[in-house]
TrEMBL record:
Protein's name in the database: Succinate--CoA ligase [ADP-forming] subunit beta
Originating gene: sucC
Organism: Nibrella viscosa
Textual note on the cofactor: Binds 1 Mg(2+) ion per subunit.
Catalytic reactions on record: GTP + succinate + CoA = succinyl-CoA + GDP + phosphate; succinate + ATP + CoA = succinyl-CoA + ADP + phosphate
EC number: 6.2.1.5
The protein's annotated pathway: Carbohydrate metabolism; tricarboxylic acid cycle; succinate from succinyl-CoA (ligase route): step 1/1
Amino acid sequence: MNIHEYQGKEILKRYGVRIQEGIVAESPEKAVEAAKQIMAQTGSKFVVVKSQIHAGGRGKGKIKGTEQRGVKVAKSVDEVRDIAKNIIGNVLITHQTGPEGKKVNKVLVAQDVYYPGAADPKEYYISILLDRTKACNVIMASTEGGMDIEEVAEHTPEKIIKEWIDPAVGLQPFQARKIAFALGLEGDAFKEMVKFVTSLYKAYVDIDASMFEINPVLKTSDNKILAVDAKVNLDDNALYRHPDIANLRDLNEEDPLEVEATSFDLNYVKLDGNVGCMVNGAGLAMATMDIIKLSGGEPANFLDVGGGANAKTVEAGFRIILKDPNVKAILINIFGGIVRCDRVATGVVEAYKAIGDIPVPIIVRLQGTNAEEGARIIDESGLKVYSAVQLKEAAAKVSQVLEEVGA
């Protein structure tokens, strides 16, 4: 589960991580109030207005049809109002949103942390994620903060520092110091970075995060270390342990079909193809998408109904897939291990009748327990459903129906 920058920062703050303070606002008027409050608290005449969407690259992104950036410094209250008017309710396009962009429903009005002083501020990059190849968490750090880490990895990989953490013992003090040394810090800034990394890692473990990305991490002109941005991803499977964090989910930021699918305990991801697929098991779903591709089609979605497929889940899957106007055919690929194929076939027939006339052809490939009986149920249903047992049969049927519909 993704959360907004302002939500991620509040979590980090609870763990002693110094952050760029800010106030979220859902209207230009609220943004002005927030700016006045922050200016009064900090004594600064500047604030930063930051779009809040679940995507990176906001600073380089632009509001659709304008030159307005997704993150902009405001030098007066009037500027705050104008910037917020241009952002809130409009669509922000970044390299991560694609050309369709995302609607911005709120902004974060944040303090200006790049204040003048005796020394220049410096930006760093720090992230924490799971390295599956080593079965360890890894802390990645770089002196090239503020840039896309992909560009740094491509052009100057030697500037990326990696420190692997044994999950059995956790982050050790010498490792936090090692990272601070590698970033070239000394004195108060060194101590601040050690504390920052230690607190950040504790937060990561405690909330069952799957990724933290802080870019940039700022060393201010008076040697404080703080998070200017915060990208936080949570492990969905652990949210039951964190109901307070689960409540931070913003459904407006998610695809409506994916939200609907989660209400039926279905794993659904929308794609751009023309063949809908419904499968039990993530690995089989990936193989099914390959089959669709090899048969001349393009997968329209990833949909895993899990091991307990029944008429209710199959019907929900049908309804979700059919809401995509690009779908010209549906391939159901079920392996009968935990669930019997005849039960799935009965569920398909019942779901078909419950929905009514389904406008696209359906291919059902059943293999495993009671596969032959399942195929018989499909064939004798009298519905516009084609059965298959072998993968090559299913692929051939997909090619046939796509040709028939002219897709």
